[in-house]
Predict the structure of Nicotinamide-nucleotide adenylyltransferase.
Amino acid sequence: MRGFYIGRFQPYHNGHHSMVERISEEVDELVLGIGSADDSHTTHDPFTAGERIMMITKAVAEYDLTTYVVPLEDINRNAVWVSHVESMCPDFDVAYSNNPLVVRLFEEAGIEVRQSPMFDRDRLEGSEIRQRMIDDESWRDRVPSSVVEVIEEIHGIKRLQHVSDSDSLERYAATGESVPESLDDLDD
Ligand SMILES: Nc1ncnc2c1ncn2[C@@H]1O[C@H](COP(=O)(O)OP(=O)(O)OP(=O)(O)O)[C@@H](O)[C@H]1O
Ligand SMILES: NC(=O)c1ccc[n+]([C@@H]2O[C@H](COP(=O)(O)O)[C@@H](O)[C@H]2O)c1
């Protein structure tokens, strides 16, 4: 049996990893879809598809599971999104997601969807982990060690802090408020 699990994985964290471990008890093979593959270099989506492929491929190597990592660009039409996914991926029997839109789209297409409990959600949430990276607070214990290595190799924290500062500058420019000194010397 082959499963499909989609996420943005910005970054791939221990909640995703626990979900994959749980899925590995139910399927022999797993397609991991990297959603919003075309997005990167923003506060919401800092890492490229290639960087996320590295994070996931290295992390799931510890499980006894055949995996296929497939980057999936967003398309501007929910009604045909499942067909888009199917056109890019190996066939699968069951989809895993806790995202209500994803669940609805797969169910409407007649594909079985399984949801899982959220693991330690207070700590294991992408947006919380990205904010901790921006604020120089501890985040390494919330992702697999192989993901720490990839983020360090690509200088991911510096990038995220830079794009976050740029977003803040744009917000100040839009409101006309004066820019705090901490953002004044932002490198281009
Ligand atoms: N701690 C968790 N435990 C179980 N499933 C999770 C956990 N965090 C996310 N998921 C699920 O994994 C899938 C992919 O999630 P996603 O990549 O959006 O992570 P996220 O932590 O929700 O990130 P963000 O805050 O950036 O939206 C979704 O179905 C999501 O509900
Ligand atoms: N129309 C579309 O392109 C469409 C529809 C539903 C989900 N998606 C993508 O699937 C992924 C779902 O992952 P998350 O559960 O992490 O949000 C996201 O990247 C989302 O953009 C895309």
The mean pLDDT is 94. The chain has one domain: 1-176. The domain at 1-176 is CATH 3.40.50.620 (Rossmann fold). The longest strand covers residues 2-7.
